[in-house]
């Protein structure tokens, strides 16, 4: 069966390209490191509080990292995949955050689950902004800021 859209309105298909192997390797290595750090946090503070702390701290770090590698330094092309996607992506855990909320509902605390879901998203968005603003303030205090 043909498409309901004329050919000129259909997006052109681009051939799929695979990321370079070095990018995959640094993402995997960084993800391993981040996941181990998160596991250590969970062993220290088990439960939803650990997930919340990890996600907020990771988001602060993402804000700092993005400022540093976009406004402060010219970073190697593997820095963002290693630190941003790998380490911080492995460290933060929004899948566990959802699982924690499900467990709260199953434990008979649906209101707390909703507060946890909304509060985590809000806290993480604010944490990214706080990390960005803090890094910018520190850079300005040391006479750096825009390349």
Automatic annotation (TrEMBL):
Q: Name one GO cellular component term.
A: plasma membrane
Query: Membrane topology per the record?
Result: Multi-pass membrane protein
Record text on activity regulation: Na(+) is not transported, but it plays an essential structural role and its presence is essential for fluoride channel function.
Localization recorded for this chain is: Cell membrane
Cite the InterPro entries for this sequence: FluC (IPR003691)
Which species does the entry assign this protein to?
A: Saccharopolyspora hirsuta
Q: GO terms for molecular function, please? A: fluoride channel activity; metal ion binding
Q: What is this protein called?
A: Fluoride-specific ion channel FluC
Question: What does the UniProt keyword field contain?
Answer: Cell membrane, Ion channel, Ion transport, Membrane, Metal-binding, Sodium, Transmembrane, Transmembrane helix, Transport
Tell me the protein family, please: Belongs to the fluoride channel Fluc/FEX (TC 1.A.43) family.
Residue numbers binding Na(+): 89, 92
TM segment ranges: 23-43, 49-69, 81-99, 111-135
What is the role of this chain?
Fluoride-specific ion channel. Important for reducing fluoride concentration in the cell, thus reducing its toxicity.
Q: Which reaction does it catalyse?
A: fluoride(in) = fluoride(out)
Keyword Zinc annotated = no
From which domain of life does this come?
Answer: Bacteria
Name any Gene Ontology BP term.
cellular detoxification of fluoride
